[in-house]
């Protein structure tokens, strides 16, 4: 089996800006939907590379034509909540479940297909999230990073108590495809003025150099490695990034032991 590179997009659009920042920040969401997504889809058309899109229901209902294009041009659309609110912020299983179901329905309405994969919106899982994934028969999740270059099985939430060792939860049959933070374009290239963690723009070639080094290391040291990139259209669709992404796609396409796949394909061939 060859190694895999998965290009995944969190198409948050305005959903990522509803509760944070100034109203003008929402223009980034519109820019992402109307300018960047078409740009990225054109790149995928040109190169024939598949990808996975996590699309909140809020985005589907705000930009239905753009979300429809993603599907019509052959990319899988998976679950990313409806509102994109952090899962722990719902405060109850019922409230989280309502948003979860609404997100599924939005995707079904758009594509006619039920999503099988999930990525948590900002903020991580709540104590109910794994339960909901199982209740609705999700096959995989791509939110965490218990490993970095190989899938694994998601566990029930572990427990952390003062003075006690970490107790890992029971293993589930939901496959987890990791996305470490250093492969998230947003954390490196999208500073938000009000957030002291993100104070300056990174340099696109530096970010891709890091990913290229990791890919090279994976090919040398890992069997059937999986390198997943977490991209956001409003960040990844900016011209300097698109140019670097196209060069990266061209270079990876030359490799005989590595191929681009969507996440569902990686999950299908994972056997533990
Ligand atoms: Zn998101």
UniProtKB/TrEMBL annotation:
PROSITE patterns linked to this entry: NODB
InterPro entries tied to this protein: Glyco_hydro/deAcase_b/a-brl, NODB_dom
A UniProt-annotated Pfam family: Polysacc_deac_1
SUPFAM superfamilies xref list: Glycoside hydrolase/deacetylase
Tree of life domain: Archaea
GO molecular function, one term: hydrolase activity, acting on carbon-nitrogen (but not peptide) bonds
Membrane-crossing segments per the record: none
Residue span, NodB homology domain: 23-261
BP GO terms, sorted: carbohydrate metabolic process
Protein name per its UniProtKB record: Polysaccharide deacetylase
């Amino acid at each position: 089996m060859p190694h895999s590179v998965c290009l995944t997009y969190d198409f948050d659009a305005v959903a990522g800006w509803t509760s944070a920042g100034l109203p003008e920040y929402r223009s980034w969401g519109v820019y992402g939907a109307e300018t960047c997504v078409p740009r990225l889809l054109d790149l995928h058309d040109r190169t024939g590379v598949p990808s996975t899109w996590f699309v909140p229901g809020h985005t589907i209902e705000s930009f239905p034509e753009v979300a429809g294009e993603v599907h019509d041009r052959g990319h899988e659309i998976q679950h990313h909540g409806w509102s994109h609110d952090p899962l722990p912020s719902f405060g109850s299983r019922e409230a989280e479940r309502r948003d979860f179901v609404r997100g599924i329905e939005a995707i079904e309405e758009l594509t006619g297909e039920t999503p099988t994969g999930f990525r948590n919106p900002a903020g991580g899982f709540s104590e109910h999230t794994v339960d909901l994934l199982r209740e609705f028969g999700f096959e995989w999740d791509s939110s965490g990073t218990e490993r970095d270059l190989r899938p694994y099985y998601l566990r029930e939430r572990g427990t952390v108590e003062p003075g006690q060792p970490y107790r890992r939860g029971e293993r589930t049959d939901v496959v987890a495809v990791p996305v470490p933070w250093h492969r998230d374009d947003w954390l490196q290239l999208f500073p938000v003025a009000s957030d002291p963690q993100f104070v300056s723009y990174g340099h696109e070639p530096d970010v891709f150099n890091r990913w290229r080094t990791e890919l090279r290391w994976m090919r040398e040291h890992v069997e059937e490695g999986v390198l997943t990139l977490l991209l956001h259209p409003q960040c990844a669709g900016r011209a300097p990034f698109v140019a670097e992404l196209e060069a990266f796609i061209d270079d990876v396409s030359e490799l005989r032991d590595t191929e681009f796949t969507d996440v569902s394909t990686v999950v299908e061939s994972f056997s533990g």
